[in-house]
Target: Acyl-CoA synthetase short-chain family member 3, mitochondrial
Amino acid sequence: MAANVAKWNILSGRIRLLTAVVKRPHTCNITRSPSSCTVHKRKYATETSPNYDDTFKSAIENPEEFWAKAAEDLVWHKKWDKVLQNDNPPFTKWFEGGEISTCYNAVDRHVEAGNGDHPAVIYDSPITKFVQTITYSELQDEVSRLAGALRNLGVEYGDRVLIYMPMIPQALITMLACTRIGAIHSLVFGGFAAKELSVRIEHAKPKIVVSASCGVEPGKSVPYKPMLDGALELSSFKPEKCIIYNRPGFDFAPMTPERDEDYDLLVSMSDPVDCVPCPSMHPSYILYTSGTTGLPKAVVRPNAGHAVVLKWSMWHLYGMKPKEVWWAASDLGWVVGHSYITYAPLLNGNTTIIYEGKPVGTPDPGVYFRILKEHDVAGLFVAPTALRAIRREDPKAEYAKKYKPLKKFRGLFVAGEHCDKETMEWSREAFSAPVLDNWWQTETGWAITASCMGVGMDPYPAMGVAGKPVPGWNVQVKRKDGTIAKPGELGDIVIQLPLPPGSFSTLWDNDDRFMDLYFKRVPGYY
Model:
């Protein structure tokens, strides 16, 4: 395996040298907002920062003014005609009439601003013992060439591309390549086997499927390509082509003639293409909520609002300054992976980490601390399950001590499930940092409640508290009769419409179900 990896590194370098020679300038004819490259030079909130109460009030009472200001941090091809169009709730439209390229804002604008040599992605795979750094310039080249390859295979604006890949940079690159040309990606969690994958192929009807030869687990490889073949046999819908990334150091996947194309060969032979600005409400992606039975629920994420709030959230929620290293220890197949491995950190000009491994056993419960130290991580987003696994194997945090001090690390953010008091206390000591819970869903796309670091909230709130409503989310607790519950009284958690930018706009190909599931029981509320 080691010899194969070394051989691949030489080959990869030769291909990159060749493509660098013929590389063409990337221009998008996009007008730049004057404040598009603002760099925050703060630790967390300061005396000059807006406080939480004022920020929340502004977002609820003056949403158009509030989100218009946030949108100025991005580059628009065409400015919006109206920030908020809510004539037909809950089918709210944000930044109506605007046109924007999320890919341009996540990749190209950083290169054009002179930050092409800054690391965009760090891929850390302790299972394969491989670490790779990809700069913004390299990311731009790879993304634009894959986008060109997709276009050469007939992918056009609005077509779906289904992605079924392990935790490797090529998955993130494929997401951005789709966004670059206005295609709609649907990334399916790699843990799903053939049956679950076939249901999603049948529903999304992708023109192209992009997959890999295999994934890697401790002590074994996971056969992605055979599972894809099995899914395509089960599905009545057949994509036109499958692009297969053959992982270096592993056996090449058997290719189906006339259908399967080699990822590396396509990219090396394709010319780069420029970004396609898309209307504000154009879907960036569709993402299936968890579950393996019943009719799929495919959340639709609109283009502009998604980009605006994710860029805004990196400082205001997580206190992350551009160029700092951020790590969301999730899978790309979940909403955290979409929002906070791929889009939010790149929109903010951060370095994002793609981690292919486990919290324990790859090789030991100190691996998270090794990554924080080795890559100078400033913020970590993780599920409490991972922290419990580390604590179970290292109750006295002896492995953590090997990597102290973590000089750049400022905050640990947890979500996905309740974080119990014992795990939170252990984590505060082990990571020597605030541990901040936040709560959200696939449907919302970003946090509903959190301790917002960029607006001066307490980094050490009471244990078990998942923060306050994030600015933009008008969260209320109601009794069954529809009246507002008193503090401390149980009730239904509801959010008054309109939902803020970045939340889902509908379910794919099913507006009626969108209404029935989420909005009919309490009119005017999610």
About this structure: The first strand starts at residue 82 and ends at 85. The CA atoms of residues 261 and 297 lie 30 Å apart.
